[in-house]
Amino acid sequence: MRPVYMISGGITKFAKAHPEKDFRLMVKEAYDAALQDVPDLSKDMIDGGVGSYFSDHFTRQLKAASMAQDYLGLCPKPSKRVEGGGATGGLCFQSAWEAIASGRMHCCVAFGFETMSRVNTWKGNEFIALASDTNFDFPVGGFYSGYYAMMVNRHMHEFGTTVEQMAMVSVKNHLNALYNPYAQKAKRLTVKQVRESPMVANPLTMEDICTMSDGAAVCILADETIAEQVCDRPVHITGIGSGSDAMRMADRPHGKVPLLPHEQESDYARLKYPGVHSFRAGRMAAKLAYEMAGIRNPLEELSFVELHDAYTSSEIQTYEDLGLCKYGEGGGFIEKGIPFMPGIEYGLPLPDQGRFPVNPSGGLLACGHPVGATGLMQAVFAFWQLQGTIEKHLGSSALQLRDPRRGLIHSHAGTGTYITVSILERT
Amino acid sequence: MKHSETTGKPVEKRQETNLPEGAPLIIQDHYEIDYRHSYAQDSPFFVGLSQGRLLGSRCTGCRYMYATPRAHCMECGAPTTWEALPPTGRVHTFTVCYYGGESFLKETPFLLVLVEFAQVNTLFLSRLKGIPLEEVQIGLPIRPQFSDTPTFKVTDVWFEPIDHS
Ligand SMILES: [Zn+2]
């Protein structure tokens, strides 16, 4: 496999609705923003594109990625659509990586979008719930927030995770987003406010759950030759992993934890895994990505993570899947302040504040979740972070980490049915 | 599929007079379809519900027992046979949904449960009824109830607490 680099990225501001732009124009804006940062990249150096959007129901336009491809002026170069629920963007990123790593392309554009504003919020929830088994799960009360609520109730039962710990994730991500002009829902919240916002599915409140969005994101990936030619500070993609699990949560079998190098079987002697409290696909994705990147202890060897926090609970569950802490310790991980940003005042006692920032951008909770764009948005934020260009792109250095060397992005579908993990490193 | 704001027919209105310069034109675009849906190899499960029986799947190879049926085993690939689930189970986890997908909004608040059965390897998603919302807890003993007027959907079965019924 050849080394693969990310050489540029662009995003539109995510918003509840963008009626003045269709998906083609949103993608074009993100693409033009990405091109602006690599002026020496000419169109004839681009070999093709990969498009991602989640739902044909939201888009009401089959083959929509073809329309984005032609709008970008990339015809007749190779193109395809990648779809994998909430992990659509992460899978698209990895598909572009595969095109370069295999030698098939020298430069590939990964573009993703979603237009979720075309139906009301509850119809939108119904569309999303159609990504659960339509014979056995959807008719019972098809509602993803309900599924995630059941998962976290079991997590709380197994491990003693608390609703206040979940609320701290909400406080962190919404407040980080105050420094991210691309975010849809930036604000200063207290734990009390999160808990007092309307209950959606016990114990998840409105402020525990990300919102639907319109938006687009673009990543440009290239081989070493092009990266050196057009980009001052390319970022090396050193690890790729993904995993899967049974569509129905009810089918998740109980077995042993797939261990990371820094874990031992005795750590989980009594744990029935994954049950419905953990995401085996996320653990699998992390394990494979760490193996490729040569990471033995993620907390020591990574500088930050941008992960798929569609729910505050799933951020806590994901700390554990990624091995940032042991299974069952996710609640304590946030409570100690470890995943908060350094140098920002959150109004909370945080003894280990900023030791290992998670979702510096504000994540899905605050940036929004235009599904097909989300995984690519995470790549763009991680790319800027590693390039040291946060101030240039966000207009403030508040979210720029000092000397980040290696970052992880994590994209997540369904109730954990497809999950991707990619490792990005500064060159 | 029902939209209160639509008539069921495509509606397109000319907005020549009211639309501000440069503003996007937004129309209502109705969409509705009936599918001919086969439960195929899972059909006996739904027929079973109409007869008051809750069927799981037992692997003929490794004996793995599934609470939610499937015709082939995820563990070893062998075919499964139909086998009645135990008459009672317990709440493995639960939630109260105060919102939901559009077609479920009128039913809120409702209780979702994943049901565990002794000696069964997987779980079953269902509704829990007949109990005050705040009294549900993990481990609560429950049993299935079946609709007298089956619609051949998975909602033909739901669960109730054992002492309440
Ligand atoms: Zn078997």
Most extensive contact: A-B, 40 and 44 residues
Q: How much of the polypeptide of chain A forms β-strand, as a percent range?
A: 15-25%
Succession of helices and strands of chain B: HEEEEEEEE
Strand order of the largest sheet of chain A: 3-2-4-7-1-8-13-12-11
Rg value of chain A: 20 Å
Give, in order, the helices and strands of chain A. Answer: EHEHHEHEHHHHHEEEHEEEHHEHHHHHEE
Q: What is the chains' assembly state? A: heterodimer
State the distance separating the first and last CA atoms of chain B.
Answer: 34 Å
User: What structural class do you assign from the helix and strand content of chain A?
Assistant: alpha+beta
SS element count, helices of chain B: 1
Give your account of this protein's structure:
The complex is a heterodimer of chains A (427) and B (165). Chain A is globular and about 55 Å long. Chain A contains 17 helices and 13 strands. In chain A, α1 crosses α3, α4 packs across α16 and α8 packs across α13. Chain A starts with a strand and ends with a strand. Chain A is of the alpha+beta class. Chain A has a 9-stranded mixed sheet, with helices on both faces. In chain A, strands 5-6 form a two-stranded antiparallel ribbon. Chain B has one domain. Chain B is built from 1 helix and 8 strands. Chain B is 5% helix and 27% strand. By secondary structure, chain B is mostly beta strands. The longest helix of chain B has 8 residues. In chain B, the strands form 2 sheets. Chain B has a 5-stranded antiparallel sheet, with no helix packed on it. In chain B, strands 2-1-3 form a 3-stranded antiparallel sheet. The chains are: A alpha+beta (427), B mainly beta (165). The complex binds zinc ion (ZN).
